[in-house]
Specification:
It catalyses: 8-oxo-dGTP + H2O = 8-oxo-dGMP + diphosphate + H(+). Belongs to the Nudix hydrolase family. Keywords: DNA damage, DNA repair, DNA replication, Hydrolase, Magnesium, Metal-binding, Mutator protein. The chain is of the alpha+beta class. It has one domain (4-131): Alpha-Beta Complex (Nucleoside Triphosphate Pyrophosphohydrolase). Helix content is 19%, strand content 41%. The chain contains two helices and seven strands. A hairpin with a 4-residue loop joins strand 5 (61-74) and strand 6. The longest helix is centred in the middle third of the chain and has 13 residues, at 46-58. The N and C termini lie far apart (43 Å). It binds 8-OXO-2'-deoxyguanosine-5'-triphosphate.
Length: 133
């Protein structure tokens, strides 16, 4: 039986752009693009996990808004349950630490990156929702 991996991702919006992060080559899904975040630890709520991961990974604090999507995707290494939330930076600036690259993209351009497969439904939703604002 494959293990279930519960993951949260932050869709950080600034100046109408979304922060995208590219995974490094020493991890699962090398060089795929994802939303900053990570695994929920025991006893944490999704929001607590996301606050912690963003401080650890991006060296900034976020205010967590509305949930965007929940998707389940079966990889060879396990079954990822990904929940994404809209977020706003409230302290500090997102900083490149663990990722290979980070960049701000307009929602309509998100599909041009090579995303982790679990993220595809979320990027489609984001592009649709933010382009009609
Ligand atoms: N943070 C994040 N992870 C994602 C996304 N989409 C997606 O499939 N994942 C996967 C990649 C990882 O297997 C897992 C998150 O793990 P993590 O970020 O806490 O850990 P990691 O990359 O250091 O770990 P690992 O998989 O190399 O063990 O979820 C996403 O948008 N954001």
């Amino acid at each position: 039986m494959k293990k279930n991996i519960h993951v949260v991702g932050a869709v950080m919006i600034e100046n109408q752009k979304v922060l995208c992060a590219q995974r490094g080559d020493s991890k699962s899904l090398p060089f795929k693009w994802e939303f900053p975040g990570g695994k929920i630890e025991e006893g944490e709520s999704p929001q607590e996990a996301l606050q912690r991961e963003i401080i650890e990974e991006m060296h900034c604090s976020v205010e967590i808004g509305e949930k965007i999507d929940y998707t389940v995707y079966e990889y060879d290494f396990g079954i990822v349950h990904l929940t994404t939330f809209y977020c706003k930076v409230i302290e500090g600036d997102p900083t490149l630490t663990e990722h290979a690259a980070i960049k701000w993209m307009f929602p309509s351009d998100l599909h041009t990156l090579d995303w982790a497969p679990a993220d595809i439904p979320a990027i489609e939703k984001i592009a649709k929702t933010l382009n009609t604002l």
